[in-house]
Automatic annotation (TrEMBL):
TM spans (from-to): none
Cross-referenced InterPro entries: Rossmann-like_a/b/a_fold (IPR014729), Universal_stress_UspA (IPR006015), UspA (IPR006016)
Source organism superkingdom: Bacteria
Species this protein is from: Actinoplanes teichomyceticus
Protein name: Nucleotide-binding universal stress UspA family protein
Database matches in PANTHER family: STRESS RESPONSE PROTEIN NHAX (PTHR46268), UNIVERSAL STRESS PROTEIN UP12 (PTHR46268:SF6)
Record domain UspA: where: 61-181, 194-240
Protein family according to the UniProt entry: Belongs to the universal stress protein A family.
């Protein structure tokens, strides 16, 4: 009951602070709260080249693995938003078993048109790769990417870039990975006002995740909720501060960290968690969450470190 009251107080405070942030403006454009069509609808027509903003050279790259699934389309939307937020280029990659099938090229053209229609300033390239094992191919292709984005399907069914591939990519890529899980999509306009939630346990890996969350929050213009799975038992839930211009709220997680983080994901724009080695010699409270959260979260998940 107390957690619900705290969440209501924080929500009211966010509304008082000014409503939708930079990320919210962009996500609402994509979600249809303003003018963007349903992500599961047919792809929008490509704007004439003369009316699109000129592509600019960027220092970073967001790479998104795509297939013909619905969640893959949503992953492209989130990848395009990240590219636009950071001023980076976007690269679409699809993997098929043989080079004779034209479906891959058709898919890449459709998704490229989709990005151009709503984010004309984002430079987009695409690549069709042939390989029998999608996960290793995608990992090799994403080696130089600043952010790798994958969609994570719900349920047991998989596709070319389905559940098992997303799981392998999450823990095989050394850089940040954004796993897009959106069971209730498209979301309402309030989605853009939600904070980033980051789980911390005092470990060096968690501190890396915390700094990543602050950097992401600065470009989004949103708040951060720090979820403490260990602490000195002080009442952190009432503590608020600002880190480099980012409003930060603290909350102590009690009980099972995995269940608490899944519950928190229902009111976050994204959850940030560090990769923790989950073995006999490196047991941490967040170790299981690193593996389970990308499969059960109710919002996108950043895995870093």
């Amino acid at each position: 009951m107390r957690n619900i009251e705290q969440f209501r107080d924080e929500t009211a405070a966010r509304r008082t602070m000014g409503g939708v942030n930079h990320f919210g403006d962009m996500i609402n454009r994509y979600l249809g709260a303003v003018s963007y069509p349903d992500p599961y609808a047919a792809a929008p027509a490509r704007a004439p080249a003369a009316k699109r903003a000129a592509a600019t050279l960027t220092a970073g790259t967001v790479l998104v693995g795509v297939d013909d699934s619905l969640i893959s389309t949503v992953a492209v939307d989130h990848a395009a938003i990240e590219a636009e937020l950071h001023g980076w280029a976007l690269r679409l990659v699809t993997i098929q078993h043989t080079g004779a099938d034209e479906a891959g090229e058709t898919l890449l053209r459709r998704l490229t048109d989709r990005v151009h229609a709503s984010a004309p300033a984002v430079p987009v390239t695409s690549r069709l790769t042939v390989g029998a094992r999608p996960a290793p191919v995608l990992l090799a292709t994403a080696a130089d990417a600043d952010l790798l984005v994958v969609g994570h399907r719900h349920g047991a069914a998989t596709t070319a870039l389905g559940r098992s591939v997303a799981d392998r990519v999450c823990h095989g890529h050394p850089g940040p990975v954004l796993v897009v899980r959106m069971p209730d999509w498209p979301a309402g306009p309030e989605f853009g006002t939600r904070p980033l939630a980051v789980a911390v346990d005092g470990s060096p890996a968690a501190r890396v995740a915390e700094e990543f969350a602050y950097a992401e929050a600065r470009v989004r213009g949103c708040e951060v909720t720090l979820l403490h799975v260990v602490g000195d038992r002080m009442d952190l839930a009432r503590r608020q501060e600002t880190r480099d211009g980012v409003p930060v709220h603290h909350r102590i997680v009690s009980g099972d960290p995995v269940s608490a983080l899944v519950e928190e994901s229902a009111r976050a724009a994204a959850v940030v968690i560090a990769r923790h080695r989950h073995d006999v010699l490196n047991r941490t409270l967040l170790g299981p969450a690193t593996h389970v959260l990308p499969q059960r979260a109710l919002c996108p998940v950043f895995l870093v470190g």
